[in-house]
């Protein structure tokens, strides 16, 4: 699946890639509409309809991921509302072993998320991600998202990685396509980002459902072995 001898840097998405996307789907599609309906006096069904229409309009833009934007737009304390259901924030069960193998391999490993810094902080508080990854980046630092080429240009300038010798893992196909356009040499999709939903059939990129299939290759390449997957 991957030739780890050709990979020096690993860029990792967070939600749906290292963490179970169920929390985010539940919050944005269920919890937030319910709480907004309570405040505004409209029905939950109407709140869902209005919010989902706005989500579609802003999809891929920095505003979609910005908690400050939604707090102002809805007059709601979004971060506090996330805390109400933060028990749903969970790492994927296959994530710890995967991150441990990457860390032990000596490769440069960078988390790159479109999540707002407050959301990133909440998830770092709730999980052990920070114990595995030294460099955690929110694209809000750059003012552009992973869907945009400007983000990849700025990332490469900051960290100095060779795109051809870089692996990027994400659950979003449009974002993987953006990375591909930039020239990232190795791309991997996550087929099952939400544990409460069935896996997706992905044909555009190599895809996995469990990181355990990668562990032997990571360790073998680190030890100088030739392992074909």
From TrEMBL:
It comes from Rheinheimera mesophila. GO terms for biological process: DNA repair. This is GMP/IMP nucleotidase. PANTHER family: GMP_IMP NUCLEOTIDASE YRFG, PHOSPHOGLYCOLATE PHOSPHATASE. Coiled coil: none annotated. GO terms for molecular function: phosphoglycolate phosphatase activity. GO terms for cellular component: cytosol. SUPFAM superfamilies: HAD-like. It holds the Pfam family Hydrolase. Gene3D superfamilies: HAD superfamily/HAD-like. InterPro entries: HAD-like_hydrolase_sf, HAD-like_sf, HAD-SF_hydro_IA, HAD_sf.
């Amino acid at each position: 699946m991957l030739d780890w001898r050709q990979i020096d840097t690993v860029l990792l998405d967070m939600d749906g890639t290292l963490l179970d996307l169920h929390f985010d789907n539940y919050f944005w599609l269920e919890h937030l509409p319910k709480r907004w309906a309570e405040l505004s006096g409209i029905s939950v069904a109407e709140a869902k309809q209005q919010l989902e229409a706005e989500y579609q309009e802003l999809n891929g833009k920095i505003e979609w991921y910005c908690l400050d934007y939604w707090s102002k737009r809805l007059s709601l304390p979004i971060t506090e509302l996330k805390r109400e259901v933060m028990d749903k924030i969970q790492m994927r069960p296959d994530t710890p072993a995967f991150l441990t193998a990457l860390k032990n391999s000596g490769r440069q490993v960078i988390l790159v998320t479109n999540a707002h810094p407050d959301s990133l902080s909440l998830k770092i508080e709730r999980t052990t991600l920070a114990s595995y990854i030294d460099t955690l980046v929110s694209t809000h630092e750059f003012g552009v998202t992973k869907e945009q080429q400007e983000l990849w240009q700025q990332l490469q300038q900051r960290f100095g990685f060779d795109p051809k010798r870089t692996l990027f893992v994400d659950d979003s196909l449009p974002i993987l396509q953006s990375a591909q356009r930039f020239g990232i040499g190795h791309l991997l999709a996550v087929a099952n980002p939400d544990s409460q939903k069935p896996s997706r059939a992905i044909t555009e990129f190599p895809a996995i459902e469990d990181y355990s299939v990668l562990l032997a290759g990571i360790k073998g390449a680190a030890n100088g072995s030739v392992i074909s997957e």
